[in-house]
Amino acid sequence: MKFFISVLIIAAILGCSEPNKTSETGKYLAWAMKFSDAVMHRSDSLIYYDRDKPKYEYDYAFLASAIDQLGEYDEKYSDYAQAYIDYFVQNDGTIYTYKLSDYNIDRVRPGLNMLVLYERTGEEKYKTAAQTLVRQM
């Protein structure tokens, strides 16, 4: 009986000492929002973030994707990320500044953002633009 009580007490202590996963997630979420807010404060558009000319590239598309994931908590993040993709994707689905003949894999990454936007909005321009990128692969 003493052994059983000892095991129960040890299990209770270990169970109580485990970090609260909800609070950990909340902490990381808060930091992600602070980072995204800093990016959005620094530049009102990701198109001109840290540069003078708009650039359709991997790193900015990756940043847009990260910010967009916070749209689940506040729509302003999704709007900010979508504005970056919308600058380059024309209404007919062509991609401004994109040249299929360049064969630059860094210009394919924004296609993931386009697929997310197509899934979210159903707008054909995103699907058409993503299909253009698939042709390059």
From TrEMBL:
<protein>
    <submittedName>
        <fullName>Glycosyl hydrolase family 88</fullName>
    </submittedName>
</protein>
<dbReference type="GO" id="GO:0005975">
    <property type="term" value="P:carbohydrate metabolic process"/>
</dbReference>
<dbReference type="InterPro" id="IPR010905">
    <property type="entry name" value="Glyco_hydro_88"/>
</dbReference>
<dbReference type="GO" id="GO:0016787">
    <property type="term" value="F:hydrolase activity"/>
</dbReference>
<dbReference type="InterPro" id="IPR008928">
    <property type="entry name" value="6-hairpin_glycosidase_sf"/>
</dbReference>
<dbReference type="Pfam" id="PF07470">
    <property type="entry name" value="Glyco_hydro_88"/>
</dbReference>
<keyword id="KW-0378">Hydrolase</keyword>
<dbReference type="InterPro" id="IPR012341">
    <property type="entry name" value="6hp_glycosidase-like_sf"/>
</dbReference>
